[in-house]
From TrEMBL:
It is a multi-pass membrane protein. The chain crosses the membrane at residues 21-43, 63-86, 115-136, 148-169, 176-195, 238-262. GO terms for molecular function: ABC-type transporter activity. This is ABC transporter permease. Keywords: Antibiotic resistance, Membrane, Transmembrane, Transmembrane helix. GO terms for cellular component: ATP-binding cassette (ABC) transporter complex. It comes from Humibacter ginsenosidimutans. Residues 23-268 form the ABC transmembrane type-2 domain. InterPro entries: ABC-2_transporter (IPR052902), ABC2_TM (IPR013525), ABC2_TM_bact-type (IPR047817), ABC_2_transport (IPR000412).
Amino acid sequence: MSTLALGAARTRYEVVAYFRSLDTVFFTFLFPLVMLGIFTAAFSASGDIVAKPGEPGISVGAYYLPGMLAAGVLLSGVQNLAVDIAREKSDGTLKRLGGTPLSPISYFAGKIGQVFVTAVIQAVLLLAVARLLFGIALPTDGSKWLTFAWIFVLGIVTSAVLGIALSALPRSGRSASAVVVPIVLILQFISGVYLNFSQLPGWMQTIAGLFPLKWIAQGMRSVFLPDDFVALEPNDSWQLGGIAVALVVWLVVGLVISRITFRWIHKDR
């Protein structure tokens, strides 16, 4: 089989295995949906959120939707792959795969393909629930959806590559969740997913700006929040160009780290 065919076959295998793992499905697939429901139910009584006094506001659910979409990208790519690959290293799966015709390229293609497929399903489900269950209005401007598409795709690929790179950090499969989950959780809190980014201390905003989640969340806000909410962003701008640059830089960093740290083929090969 060709490298492409093996990658496609591996993607199918990874997707099936993903949905058979109940803890993975809950903590990476359903978690953003659960959090959107919790925030909407808990804070809706406080009224709509406004960007400027006197301007029309939006519901709590509508305000948190972009953050939950961004969190879904991070969880699907970084957390899912970092923990999964670390476990496969620990239990000998990678060593066994090293003796098969599956190349590292096909293996990576399968992992990234699985992340892309599950993230798309997750995003569609999240948007459907937001619209049908919570009554959140979605964009009607085609340009907004084009912006969503490139941020989503670039964010997914970047997150997947960074998940592969981060899988080298845990010393064993058992410690993978303990190492990876706190990193992902902290990034969500400082990147404007659970907290209003404009209300965070300046030093915290600066630190968040060094990591990709802040840029993915900002990009999602540019799509799903009204235009006047740009006043709450740094420099009163959505900074779409900066988002593209930041994600591409992190994609390159993830590729370099993955190339340096990933091992599965026997030393004598």
